[in-house]
Design brief:
single chain, five-stranded antiparallel sheet
Length: 77
């Protein structure tokens, strides 16, 4: 089972409570687009067993956002 740690827009990278851990890309996408605090919701996604809040990892594997034509875009961060 894959592990994805999702840090939504406005979350603090060094705070574990600001991450949502999910098991699939679809679940990560759902977390990213439900963040209504920002005009364009988005999220940093870290993949694997690492714990970015402990490692102070500033380099996510992906950035999820709503693209200019309304679709979900998985960009390489």
């Amino acid at each position: 089972m894959a592990t994805y740690h999702v840090l939504t827009a406005g979350g603090y990278a060094d705070t574990q409570a600001d991450y949502v851990t999910v098991n699939s890309r679809d679940e990560a996408k759902a977390v990213a687009v439900t963040d209504s605090a920002w005009r364009t919701p988005g999220a940093h996604v870290f993949h694997g067993s690492r714990t970015p809040w402990e490692e102070r990892d500033a380099y996510p594997d992906w950035y999820i956002e709503i693209g200019p034509r309304g679709g979900i875009v998985w960009g390489v961060a």
